[in-house]
Structures are given as C-alpha cells and as structure tokens.
Design a protein that fits this description.
Length: 182
C-alpha cells in the first residue's frame, strides 16, 4: 500500500477536475482554478474517484509497480491543484561582492563575476521579480517548471565551497570549507 496514495485530496471551492482518456495506457487529468489550467498524464491503471469535493485514488492491481504509480499520480495531481489555486513561489539569493541581477523586458540579466553578463530569457508561465538586486523571486503555477527555472538560474553560478559566493536558494545553508592552513 502506498501511504501517499491512500491519502485523499480535498478540493478547494474554485477548482474543477476532469479526466479524459488519452490512449491505451494513460488518462489526462485537467485541473482548472482561479490562476489558470494545468494537465498531467496519469496511468489508466490508477482509478480516480471524485465525490463531494474529495478526490481519492486506487490502483487496479496490487503490486509494487502500481503502488509506486499510485503515490506518484496522487502527488502530481496534488501539485496541480495547489498550483492553480495558490501558485508556487521560490526565492533565490545572490551572494558575492558586485554580484547582482536586473530585469529587462522578459529577460533576467545576471552579473555574477564573469567577464560578460548572463542573459536568461524568462519562459512563458513564469514571473520573475526582484525584491532587491541580490534577491530573485520566481513565481508560477506549474511546480515542475518553477523549480526547473530556479535550478537553471542557480546553475549559472553555483555556491563556491571556499568563499560561499554564488546563487543559492533563499536561506539555504552552504557549508564553507576551511581552505589551506599555514
């Protein structure tokens, strides 16, 4: 039994869900809410029941593979519901002398110690704002897209192990090595 899969999802008031057949192996779950609409593919061996604003799921067969799909499907649908109802927000912090970020039209420009500026084109569905020149806020309704954008921005200048300079998640604890002695 999947402990995650057995837990039920209580649907908020402004969220509606529909399930459509996609092909022989998958169904498409469409979720619409006040912030937008999202969809995900779910294996058709996972049965989705919606009754009285409570969504429950169960696998057709009891095996290790379908129990894993059961928990995965429940998590994916839960992320869709939270995304269209509240959205996701992540903050990135830029640490280093002279390191900063600026916003141009649909572009994020990073100055992080290279001889050139790094220009990142902001994808559709993502809103990036600057709280201050060293704090970036990434917002969106799709959790997978928001976290992948954050990891791409962070990969431009990973935190240094000896000085701690670079781009990191807000309040992320970076362990700094001692370096040479003597």
């Amino acid at each position: 039994m999947s402990h995650i899969g057995k837990s039920k999802i209580i649907l908020p008031d402004h969220v509606s869900i529909s399930v459509q057949s996609y092909d022989l192996n998958y169904n498409i779950v469409n979720v619409t809410g006040k912030l937008g609409a999202l969809s995900a593919k779910v294996h058709n061996k996972i049965i989705i029941n919606i009754a009285d604003n409570i969504l429950s799921m169960s696998p057709v067969l009891d095996s290790k593979y379908y129990n894993a799909l059961w928990g995965l499907s429940r998590t994916l649908i839960s992320n869709l519901i939270i995304g269209v109802n509240q959205g996701y927000t992540y903050k990135l912090s830029i640490v280093g002398v002279g390191y900063r970020a600026t916003l141009e039209t649909n572009k994020l420009v990073l100055k992080v110690g290279y001889s050139h500026d790094i220009v990142y084109n902001i994808p559709a569905g993502i809103k990036i704002s600057l709280i201050n020149p060293t704090t970036i806020e990434v917002k969106g309704i799709d959790k997978q897209l928001v976290t992948s954008v954050c990891s791409l921005i962070k990969a431009f200048k990973k935190p240094d192990a000896y000085k701690g300079k670079g781009i990191r998640f807000y309040r992320e604890n970076v362990t700094v090595k001692q370096g040479k002695r003597g």
